[in-house]
Structures are given as C-alpha cells and as structure tokens.
C-alpha cells in the first residue's frame, strides 16, 4: 500500500534550538556594552511581540537588527553557541532526520547565515532551508535584511509555504504565531505546538496537537524515534505532600507529574489510578487489591518513606507492579527526635512549659532527671534502633536492646534475651520494631506491667504496635511516668482535626507522625525514590525493589530491550526463547531473576527485527506484563 506523502516543516528558533538566535547574537555583540541588560530585555520584548503577532514581523526584525549592531565576524561565535543549544529531543532523534531527509524543511523567520550550518548536521541542505538573509555594509556590519524575501514580511510563512507548492500533507512544527497562522490560512494541514523550550498560550490553543518534545511528534506520526514511548505520556501521581524535589526530578526527566498534598480514599484512588503509570505515596495511602486491580497501567509504586505495609505488596507483584521505598533516608531524623524526647520526658519539660503557657511558675527538680547513667531499652535493633543506640551511648546512657532477629551489638550495648528482661531493667523503653502485621498490639497491658515503675515509653514505630487504651491506664496510674507518641492506630489522611485518648495526660508528648519529617530526610527521599523509579521505568532495573526479584542491568546500547514479567511456572523461559528463535532475533544480552511467584526476564536485541515478535511474546501463557525499551 502506498503511504501518503507527508512534509515536515520545522521552525528554527525555540524549536530546533532551545533559544532565539537573535537573543544569543545580542549576548555576543553587547558583551561589553554597559547597557547590555537593558538592550537585551528590549530585544526580547520585541521578539515576543513579534512571535505573538502583537507587532508586525518586519517591524520587529528592523528594530532588533538596529539594536544588535552585529558584525559578520560575530556569526561564527553565534553558530558555535547555537550548536550547543539544540533542543535535546531534536539532538536525540537524529535517525528521523537521516531517514526522512527528503521530507523535512526548515521554514524560519530567522536567517540562513546561521540556520544553514546548524541544520546541515541534521541532513537538511541549504535548498530546503527557507529563511531570511542579512544585508551587510562594506565594513561587514549587519545593517538590514532582504526585504524582498516573503519571510521578512508579516505572515511570511504563509506566503513561503504557498510558493513552495509542496505535494502531500503539510505538518508544521513550531512554537509561535508565524507557525500557527499557516494552519488557519489553509497552507498547513496540521500544526504541532512544540513546547519543549517555550510554551506560548496562543500556540497551544491553536494547535492540532501539543508536542512537548520531538518524541511525542514522532510517536503520534509513528516515525522512527530514539525512545519507545514518549516520557510525557508516562503519568506520575505523587500524593501526601511529597517533597517538591521529587516533582522537579521526575518532571525534568520528561514525565508528566501531578502532585497532591493529601492522601486519597480507596474510591478516589481507584478512579484516579486508571491512567497512572507511577504512583508515589507516603504512609497514609492504602494501596489495596481493589486499587491494584483498577491500576491497569501502573508500572511501579514509590513509597517515599520506610514503611511499605500500606501497600499490598503480594498483589502488586502478581500484577507485575514493582515497589520501591527509602529504607534509610529518614533514619537519622527519627533517632534525633527520640533523643530529644528522652531528654524532654526525663526533665518533664512539657509539663513545665504548659504551666508557664497557663501563667504558672513552678520551679522544681521533682520528676526531673539527667539521662546520663540511665538505662535505655531499645526494642527492635534495626536501622533506627542501632543508630539510636550509638547516639544514646554517646550521651552516657546504658543501652540494652531486644530484637527477634540475631543482631550484633554496637558499642557497649547489651543484648537482652527476652522482652521481659529488657522491660524489667529499662528507665526508658523506645520502640523501633518494623511495621509487620504480626506486631499489632505487640505492646499492651502485660508489657506495661513488666516495665519498671515510673519508666518512660517512646513509640516512633507504628501506631498499631501499642495498645493505646492500655497505655492510657498505665499513664493515669503513674506506672508509666511519661510517653512520647508519634504514631497512632488510626491516622487522618489529611491535616485537620484529630483525637486520641492520650490528649490531656501529664508528661505525654504527642506529635503527628513527624518522626521522619525533616527537610533533610524529605529531600533525601525525594532524591532516592525518584532515582529508583527512573531506573526501572527507563531501563528496567529493579535494584532495591521490596517486592520483586532484584536485578541490576547493564546499560542498553544500540539495542532494543524486552522486559517480560511472568508467573514463575515451569517451561516459561523455554517458550520465551522459542519465540525469539522463531523470529530469528539477534540476542545481545539476556538476564533473568526469579522468586517463588514471578520471573523477570530481560532480553536485549539488535534494533532490526520482525515486529511481530512482540505480540508473540505478549501472548505467551502466564505473561503478566511486557514492555519494550529503547
Ligand atoms: N515515625 C516516623 O516518622 C517513622 C519514620 C521512619 C520509620 N518509622 C518506623 O520505625 C520502625 C523501624 O524502622 P527501621 O528502619 O529501623 O526498620 P528495620 O526493619 O531496619 O528494623 C526493625 C527491627 O525490628 C525488629 N523486630 C520486628 N519485630 C520485632 C518484635 N516483635 N520484637 C523485637 N524486634 C522486632 C526486626 O527484626 C528489625 O531488626 C518501622 O516500623 C518504621 O515504619 C517511623
Ligand atoms: O512520611 C511518612 O508518611 C512516613 C514516615 C515513616 O513512618 C516511614 O515509614 O518512613
């Protein structure tokens, strides 16, 4: 079947390059001019007025050339600078410019003197560049332009395209007025608003299609491209006030990111998740089997925290959804809060402070003790427990710990063989067990009874670990002299009203699950988790995934990468290889990692292959998910 001829008409400034060339020329010519900033601002204003169609293009050109005061010798430097500032999606898609060279034109209101040498590198010869030309005086100064050229006139591109008299469909790709008017005038069949460098409201409104980069344009036209799926089509939803650095990092990589300050209910999440490829949450969002079932496009979930029990990890795995977390980023923050709270509780600082807030002066040493020499009992000697052990010891505390696993003591910390033993000797008990469901109501009446009279309790782990009613009784009876609680059996999804039976009790510090909420921790998490997400989405790496076989993949060079996630049943690898053999693929690398439930096989193949292989791989029985990356 013969395919219809298409002509691709590219604008130059802010489309092929990320800048306006005359602005760059101004930077060069005005380098030593004391009024440089003023003049450059003026030039930019004039450029924008012209691009938006507020003043005639000829007028804008005349004014700018006068202000520029440029010389022929400046052009060489300009060309060098422009070469460094090509739009990145143009640079990464050279193959398209090579394969479709006969159908590509540059039609620009810029100047051939600098456009020709730049686009030549992209296989576009001078005779397919339609642009203005400068006029020079005998000393080589630019004094004007060829006024006969239609491109120097208002609506010049319309006239130029008419004169070009091209056969077939005409697609214009550009960012401004001169581009979109060609569509209205009927000389272009489609206008693509290119917004990689600048997003002009009017251009976006008039566009048949908004293309945030060349990848999107090539994808919708099914043209050869450097990337399998445009990143702007990958939708990321970040909930629960995740640090804005995460948004910046993911958006800078080209993804479409939406950020919400609160968590979503199951129903709202089910609705929202249908189109989402990547979900980012903290501790409040429950990712239930119903949510996962609705998440048809979901590739990965980032828990921007330590805990992952809010996510049904097994169901995620069965659906080929890879989950990451940040296991260490907020550890130090929790430890520092625990240390602060131990001191505050030991000194009864909060009751003393409340008295003064209520207008009372109560200077007393009663119920106020140093931490030095006191016994700290750490329950759960993991990442947080261990770090707390070291800092507490540095303050002169004697550290004891209890863990269900065999954990090596740090410093002079002493291991207890049972929880009872630890509780019976500790002046302060600090809970740092993990968020395992088995730890529900782990600490109740029996444990309070086993504590020393007047000991203190700290819970910065999970709310369901402590029986709050039993704690209330222990505090009221003075069995426990004080407590610091950061986590609660039920926590609200968003900021607002909150009630707990512990409100109003003496020497009880209540914080709203902020143990890990420091600027430093949140920034670190906003670096760590997006990196994991990008490594998976962009290359298939699952290193540090919490529910998936971990695999570190080599860099993919000059190859297409097939990612095949399947149920781990006998014979599946043989079937995958049979398909690859049937279509005679040249396999350049194959990697496999499995656990008892799923298998994850990655195959790197030569770029040229029979495309039918992909549907054959998808059709293999027990396939869960299949993706191609390039
Ligand atoms: N408040 C906050 O903002 C905040 C911030 C970060 C972490 N946390 C929570 O802190 C807790 C500890 O985090 P971590 O990074 O140290 O986890 P971790 O997995 O490194 O350590 C947990 C330790 O607890 C032990 N453990 C589990 N159940 C136990 C039990 N019943 N008795 C004794 N030991 C037990 C484990 O063997 C492990 O050594 C987690 O619950 C985490 O969700 C809270
Ligand atoms: O930031 C959060 O919402 C959770 C903090 C903490 O409980 C964690 O699991 O890291």
From TrEMBL:
InterPro entries: ACT-like_dom_sf, ACT_dom, AHAS_small-like_ACT, D-2-hydroxyacid_DH, D-isomer_2_OHA_DH_cat_dom, D-isomer_DH_CS, D-isomer_DH_CS1, D-isomer_DH_NAD-bd
Source species of the chain: Kordia algicida OT-1
Coiled coil: 58-92
Enzyme Commission code: 1.1.1.399, 1.1.1.95
Signal peptide residue numbers: none
Annotated metabolic or biological route of this protein: Amino-acid biosynthesis; L-serine biosynthesis; L-serine from 3-phospho-D-glycerate: step 1/3
Chain ranges of the ACT domain: 561-630
Keywords from the named record: Amino-acid biosynthesis, Coiled coil, NAD, Oxidoreductase, Serine biosynthesis
Function according to Swiss-Prot or TrEMBL: Catalyzes the reversible oxidation of 3-phospho-D-glycerate to 3-phosphonooxypyruvate, the first step of the phosphorylated L-serine biosynthesis pathway. Also catalyzes the reversible oxidation of 2-hydroxyglutarate to 2-oxoglutarate.
Family named by the database record: Belongs to the D-isomer specific 2-hydroxyacid dehydrogenase family.
Gene3D superfamilies cross-referenced by the UniProt entry: 3.30.70.260, HAD superfamily/HAD-like, NAD(P)-binding Rossmann-like Domain, Phosphoserine phosphatase, domain 2
PROSITE patterns reported for this sequence: ACT, D_2_HYDROXYACID_DH_1, D_2_HYDROXYACID_DH_3
Family annotation (Pfam families): 2-Hacid_dh (PF00389), 2-Hacid_dh_C (PF02826), ACT_AHAS_ss (PF22629), HAD (PF12710)
Catalytic activity: (R)-2-hydroxyglutarate + NAD(+) = 2-oxoglutarate + NADH + H(+); (2R)-3-phosphoglycerate + NAD(+) = 3-phosphooxypyruvate + NADH + H(+)
Entry protein name: D-3-phosphoglycerate dehydrogenase
Class of the enzyme per the UniProt entry, highest EC level: oxidoreductase
One BP term from GO: L-serine biosynthetic process
GO molecular function: (S)-2-hydroxyglutarate dehydrogenase activity; NAD binding; phosphoglycerate dehydrogenase activity
Top-level lineage group: Bacteria
């Amino acid at each position: 079947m013969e395919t219809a001829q298409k002509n691709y008409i590219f604008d130059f400034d802010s489309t092929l390059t990320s800048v306006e060339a005359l602005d760059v020329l101004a930077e060069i010519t005005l380098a030593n001019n004391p009024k440089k900033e003023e003049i450059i601002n003026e030039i930019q204003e004039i450029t924008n007025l012209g691009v938006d169609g507020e003043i005639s293009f000829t007028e804008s050109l005349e004014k700018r050339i006068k202000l520029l005061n440029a010389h022929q010798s400046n052009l060489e430097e300009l060309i060098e600078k422009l070469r460094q500032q090509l739009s990145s999606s143009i640079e990464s898609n050279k193959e398209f410019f090579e394969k479709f060279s006969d159908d590509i034109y540059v039609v620009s209101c810029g100047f051939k003197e600098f456009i020709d040498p730049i686009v030549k590198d992209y296989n576009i010869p001078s005779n397919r560049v339609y642009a203005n030309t400068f006029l020079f005086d005998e000393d080589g100064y630019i004094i004007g332009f060829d006024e006969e050229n239609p491109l120097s006139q208002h609506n010049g591109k319309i006239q130029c395209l008419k004169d070009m008299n091209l056969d077939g469909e005409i697609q214009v790709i550009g960012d401004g007025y001169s581009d979109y008017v060609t569509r209205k005038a009927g000389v272009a069949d489609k206008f693509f608003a290119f917004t990689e460098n600048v997003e002009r409201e009017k251009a976006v409104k008039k566009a048949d299609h908004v293309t945030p980069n060349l990848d999107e344009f090539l994808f919708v036209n099914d043209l050869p491209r450097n990337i399998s799926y445009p990143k702007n089509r990958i939708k990321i939803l970040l909930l629960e006030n995740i640090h804005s650095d995460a948004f910046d990092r993911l958006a800078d990589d080209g993804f479409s990111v939406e950020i919400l300050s609160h968590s979503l209910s199951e129903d709202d999440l089910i609705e929202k998740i249908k189109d989402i490829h990547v979900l980012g949450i903290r501790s409040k969002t429950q990712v239930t089997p119903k949510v996962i079932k609705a998440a048809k496009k979901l590739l990965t979930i980032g828990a921007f925290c330590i805990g992952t029990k809010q996510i049904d990890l097994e169901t995620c795995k069965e659906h080929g959804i890879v989950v990451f977390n940040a296991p260490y980023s907020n550890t130090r923050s929790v430890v520092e809060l625990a240390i602060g709270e131990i001191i505050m509780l030991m000194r009864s600082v909060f009751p003393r402070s409340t008295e003064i807030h209520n207008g009372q002066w109560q200077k007393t040493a009663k119920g106020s003790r140093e931490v030095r020499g006191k016994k700290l009992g750490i329950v759960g000697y993991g990442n947080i427990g261990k770090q707390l052990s070291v800092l507490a010891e540095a303050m002169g505390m004697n550290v004891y710990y209890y863990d269900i696993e065999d954990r090596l003591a740090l410093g002079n910390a002493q291991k207890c063989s049972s929880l009872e033993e630890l509780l019976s000797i500790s002046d302060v008990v600090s809970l740092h067990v993990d968020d395992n469901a088995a730890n529900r109501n782990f600490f109740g009446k029996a444990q309070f009874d086993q504590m020393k009279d007047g000991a203190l309790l700290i819970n910065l782990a999970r709310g369901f670990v402590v029986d709050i009613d039993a704690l209330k009784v222990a505090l009221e009876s003075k069995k426990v002299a004080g407590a610091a609680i950061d986590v609660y059996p039920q926590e609200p999804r968003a900021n607002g009203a909150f009630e707990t039976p512990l409100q109003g009790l003496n020497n009880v510090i209540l914080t709203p699950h902020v143990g890990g909420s420091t600027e430093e921790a949140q920034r670190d998490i906003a670096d760590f988790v997006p990196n994991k997400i990008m490594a998976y989405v962009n290359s298939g790496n699952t290193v540090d995934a919490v529910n998936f076989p971990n695999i570190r993949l080599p860099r993919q060079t000059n190859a297409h990468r097939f990612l095949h996630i399947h149920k781990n049943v006998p014979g599946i690898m043989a079937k995958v290889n049979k398909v690859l053999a049937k279509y005679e693929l040249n396999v350049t690398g194959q990697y496999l990692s499995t656990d008892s439930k799923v298998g994850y096989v990655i195959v790197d193949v030569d770029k040229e292959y029979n495309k039918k292989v992909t549907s054959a791989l998808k059709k293999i029985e027990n396939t869960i998910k299949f993706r191609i990356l390039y």
